[in-house]
Design a protein that fits this description.
It is built from 14 helices and eleven strands. The protein is α/β, with parallel strands linked by helices and 319 residues long. It has a seven-stranded mixed sheet with strand order 5-2-1-6-7-11-10, with helices on both faces. Strand 10 and strand 11 form a beta hairpin.
């Protein structure tokens, strides 16, 4: 098996966990299967860089001497807000030569600035997704998944999702057992699937300003198995269905139906992750009614069936 060089780009204002999280995954894989990865860090100059938290990192070399890696990893951080033009120029010139181009968090902004995400589907930290989409309309931005793989380019969401993406790459290179061994060592019990949402339904939507609508949001969260149709929710809010639907969307940024779908999916996910309840019981208590209805919702949104989701995400019992 040929050794793969993993080159991590450093710059002032980089998010330290964007660097060290994936780096620890590849280093753990190298310990598991020696000779698999050669891990290097590089900056524009070979001088130390200061992370956004104040930590100082010393690169192995300058980007000018780095050569062409198998996997080029671009982290995010405050330094992506006003990047050095030399860095985006280097990425534009050398990024296409890497067999795998990977970003963590707002590292996607650097890739987009270099034109490396044009025509591709990508993600980034949820707080910067709108900016990425606005500034780079040629990029198909999806703010929900924790990571997206589009050909040779892979982008991940905020901070710790870089670990999930790195584990997925290790699994691709070395197999599932190697990836799980690394995950256990890092106390990441099981790798999260890339299409898992970045955050909860409550965080995905805005909190309504008016008290009746806030109460409805809370009611939905606490009663996912109840009748949550627009007419029923509107009656609870003492509004006409049309007025309720319009006001809910205006204040939360999403429709009542979509909000209910997110809450029910999140409720089911948590039960699959944290309990041993059967699929039929979970489908009923989460408001789906039948296992088939829940299966369709999971496949449509997460790309995987509930049983497979539980197998991949629920931590193994301690031994």
């Amino acid at each position: 098996m040929a050794q793969r060089t993993v080159l991590v780009v450093l710059f002032d204002g980089v998010q330290s966990l964007d660097v060290t999280g994936p780096l620890e995954v590849f280093a753990g894989a190298e310990q598991h299967t020696p000779g698999t990865y050669r891990i290097r860090t590089a900056a524009l100059d070979d001088a130390p860089v200061r992370t956004s938290s104040g930590l100082t990192l010393v690169p192995d070399e300058s980007l000018a001497r780095a050569g062409t890696p198998h996997t080029l990893l671009v982290p995010g951080g405050q330094g992506t807000r006003r990047p050095d033009p030399r860095l985006t120029d280097w990425l534009r010139e050398h990024g296409p030569d890497a067999e795998r181009l990977v970003s963590v968090c707002t590292g996607a902004i650097l890739l987009a600035e270099a034109g490396l995400l044009d025509g591709r589907r990508a993600t980034t930290h949820w707080a910067y997704s709108a900016k990425l989409a606005r500034d780079h309309p040629a990029v198909e931005v999806d703010p929900d998944p924790i990571y997206i793989r589009d050909g040779q380019v892979s982008t991940s969401a905020g901070v710790t999702s870089g670990i999930d993406l790195a584990l997925a790459l290790v699994e691709e290179d070395l197999g599932r057992e190697a990836a799980l061994t690394v995950a256990r060592h890092l106390v990441v019990f099981l790798r999260r699937p890339g299409n898992q949402a970045q955050f909860s339904a409550q965080l995905a939507a805005q909190t309504a300003q008016r008290e009746p609508l806030r109460e409805i949001q809370q009611w939905i969260t606490e009663h996912p198995a109840d009748d949550l149709g627009v007419e029923s929710l509107a009656a609870r809010a003492r509004l006409s269905p049309r007025h309720f639907a319009r006001a809910f969307r205006t204040e939360t940024g999403t429709t009542p139906g979509r909000y209910v779908d997110r809450v029910r999916l999140e409720h089911a996910r948590r039960l699959l992750e944290d309990t041993t309840d059967g699929i039929e019981e979970i489908s009923r208590t989460s408001g789906y009614g039948t296992p088939e209805a829940m299966r369709r919702a999971f496949v449509r949104t997460l790309g995987t069936a509930p049983a497979e989701y539980r197998r991949r995400f629920r931590p193994s019992p301690a031994h």
